[in-house]
Amino acid sequence: MEHLLAGLNRAQHEAVTATEGYVRVIAGAGSGKTRALSHRFAYLVNELGILPGNILCVTFTNKSANEMRQRIHALTGDNDTGYINTFHGFCVSVLQEDSHAVQYPKSFLVLDNSDIDAMLGIIYEERGLTLRDMTYSAARDMIEIRKLFKEPEYYKDMITMSLDTLREKYKRADTAGDIIFYGYLYQEKKCFGLDYNDLIKFSLYIFEQHEDIRLKWQQRLEYIMIDEFQDIDALQYELMEVLCGYHGNLFIVGDPDQTIYTWRGANVKYLLDFDKVFPNVQTIMMMENYRSTPEILAAANSLIAKNGHRIKKNLLPTKPSGEKVVCHFADTQEAEAQWMTGEMKRLHDRGLPLRDMTVLYRAHYVTRAVEEALMHEKIPYTIYSGVQFFDRMEIKDALSYLRMIAYQDDLSFRRIANAPKRNLGKRRMAFLQETAEKEGTSLYVTLKNHLEDSVFSGTKAKQFVDLIERFSHSYQGRPISEVLSDILDKSGYEKALRTEGSQERLDDLAELKQSIYEYETSCGEESTMEHYLAHIALFSNGDVAEQGDKVKLMTVHAAKGLEFPYVFLCGMNEGIFPSRKVRTLPGMEEERRLAFVALTRAEKGLYLSEADGWNFDGSPRYPSRFLLDIDRELLSFTHEVDETLLREAADDVTRRDKYLREDDGDGTLPIGQRVRHAVFGEGTVLDVDLNKGAHVIQFDGMGTPRSISLRAKLEKIGP
Of the residues 112, 188, 195, 227, which is catalytic? Predict the structure, then answer.
């Protein structure tokens, strides 16, 4: 036991050893919560004798799940690390075991955005829609809104309706919104695909309809731990309530000061009111910070203290003293960027690698001047918002080959049947589509059944089928990385890239193979092809790190959960950070929490900067209120501060605050409320955007929702 508890502070020790009942840990930024979670898992296994397979540990990114898995393996020495996953990843495990309850095969597909876009392409082509009707991005948003709010029981159609009935519903649709939505549900069912939203909905449906399955999972999960609890949404909370309903052992970790995803459905009340909902809750405060210098923490504490609705607490430093937080007021955006690059070069001359430096900002448009300055100074950089690694063409192609081996689904077939070129162009693919619909078979099975047809003479269709058949019958039991290398070679895919001279794409494939090898090493017996493909479909941009010695650029939202030796937080101007879109006091407090998250990413050095001048609308630019929130003595200014500018900035904040609306609930309608608008007619409230001061309403006669001011007159229909 000593080695598991050695080095833990008092609060961490208390969290690790508090194993029974309901436990809430309020864990400040950099307070070692990952260490506490992993040691608690190991304590349950090594000291209490709990089987790893009876523990669920929920994290919010695949990257943090992988890190947790590796830490626990190092502590327990056991390859079985239980269920360490995101909520959606855990639901994949539930459905892979119990999908029979919804008449889905165990080999269902987990869909990502590129799969959804491929389905939209089929629907648009079939029904003659164009991007003028709706862009793919707007269509994806519309589908998500309808699934979550307008038609929250959509999944019952997917589960209970036959494919033919669902297709008829799609064919009868006559508005762009309905055509896309029901066409998408049909395409999903056709290939047994489930997207991000479906995973939790299907799991909850199974638990609701099948008491025996619910009880099996409840009894299995003797201990449940949930990280980043301040970011939990309503569906995840409902799933959590179900899962802990038998043993009543629930351990949650979160920080109300880092709630920055309310726009995505997160509700910090679940964390703040946890002790009001569950019995005999033990609350542990974990405030010792192991990440940042005392100077950085002092600035962060000073900033967040200006929020009124929070649990009052301060991060406590444990690291030795460092340099003061630097604050720079520049005359222009260009001057601000030049100052930043000058500081970077100074740090680099001291021997610090560029990868230790990160530029954070509130919105992407802020980076123009920064990028120009970096290019001018020949400082290499990477933006964490470009094409994500797993969305790159060659990566999607390689994973589609693996999916063809395991599933032979239509989406993967369309992607790689002609990659590399096999003379299976549009005419032959149209023949396959038409024949598949007539015969009720998949595209791949249709091709197998019609290889001798004259339409495929002069093609490499037979070689393709032989390739897939050979691998489909031999992949099980082989390492995934070995199968991937083999099929990329035998298919001629890598040869085609070499012929094109696409070294960067070949390097990406090498990186993919390495990542699969690391996945196999960390997951042990779980590393089956099907498990890996489901796991990879849930990856996000934050799960993949860029390599090389480059300065990183990213939004503060993208930086959540990460840490960097030196942070440059730029664009600290009123109307930029905080955003000019903020319309309410709660919205302003969330912006301040976002700034707090930005400050607490820094380990050794923190640089804050703003640029004077004029906004695009001709109004003067002032320093952000968040710079004014930090006590002056905690900042080291690069030049003497213009007191007149600070007074004008403070007056500007006072003026702006007069227009911030109190969030007293007046004037807002509940989600799901049916309403009537004088011009647009009847509709359903999908969301309330307090920052904009608007209801988001899907009107019955429109394909896309509209944001309607809270001041507009709306008549309630029904309850």
Answer: 227
Q: What is the pTM of this model?
A: 0.77
Which of 24, 33, 201, 460 is catalytic? The answer is: 33
Contacts 24+ apart (CB under 8 A), 245-248: 245/218, 246/215, 246/218, 246/219, 247/218, 247/219, 247/221, 247/222, 247/223, 248/21, 248/22
Identify the DSSP state of 150: I
pLDDT of 520: 80
Laid out side by side, the sheet with 223-226 consists of 83-85, 55-58, 223-226, 250-254, 22-27, 282-286
pLDDT in tens, 360-379: 999 877 888 898 899 989 99
- Check if 662 is active-site: no
> What 3 state SS string does 672-693 have?
CCEEEECCCEEEEEEEEECCCC
Active site residue 489: no
**Cα(689)–Cα(706) distance, integer angstroms:** 11
Q: Write the CB contacts of 466 (distance below 8 Å, at least 6 apart in sequence).
A: none
Query: Known catalytic residue: 658?
Result: no
Tokens at residue 240, please? Answer: 């959590």
Paired with 555 in beta bridges are 361
Q: Which of 98, 133, 188, 228 is catalytic?
A: 228
Instruction: Tell me the two tokens of residue 591.
Output: 């912006």
CA distances from 507 to 144, 381, 427, 513 (A): 35, 19, 33, 10
What's residue 5's pLDDT? 87
Q: Is there a catalytic annotation at residue 378?
A: no
pLDDT, tens digit, 9 for 90 and up, residues 379-398: 999 887 645 567 778 989 99
d(CA 658, CA 656) in angstroms, rounded, equals 5
Closest among 550, 554, 608 to 375, alpha carbons compared: 550
Handedness of CA 97, 99, 105, 111 (dihedral sign): negative
Which residue stretches of the chain have pLDDT < 50?
A: 386, 541-542, 545, 664, 666
Active site residue 520: no
Catalytic residue among 19, 34, 282, 528: 34
Catalytic: 126? Answer: no
